[in-house]
Design a protein that fits this description.
The chain is an all-beta fold. Helix content is 0%, strand content 58%.
């Protein structure tokens, strides 16, 4: 069993930046990918970015490429999402998740990101 806890969300003006944190604890396996998803009101949850715990290979959704950066610190078992040039359409609840075999099997509780125009 693994526990994921997000933090770092908040209110920011359009064009601003936020850094999200995902603390990972419990039965940690390095053979998983870790991902950030987001869900805005009335919309489906979407994959924003992911990173392999070993090797650090990254993926970004087209909508955030060039603005968001995913990273991790294996020693601290923490994952980050640096979000720059935020837009109103980036507003959502952001979740970190552990992904195995193409599907997420563990989720955090989410952190709210609000972007004012």
């Amino acid at each position: 069993q693994v526990q994921l806890v997000e933090s770092g969300g908040g209110l920011v003006q359009a064009g601003g930046s936020l850094r999200l944190f995902c603390a990972v604890s419990g039965r940690i396996s390095l053979n998983y990918n870790m991902s950030w998803f987001r869900q805005a009101p009335g919309k489906e949850r979407e994959l924003v970015s992911s990173i392999t715990w070993i090797g650090g290979t990254t993926y970004y959704a087209d909508s955030v490429k060039g603005r968001f950066t995913i990273s991790k610190e294996n020693a601290k078992t923490t994952m980050y999402l640096q979000m720059n040039s935020l837009r109103p359409e980036d507003a959502a609840v952001y979740y970190c998740a552990r992904v195995s075999g193409g599907s997420a099997d563990s989720w955090g509780q989410g952190t709210q990101v609000t972007v004012s125009s």
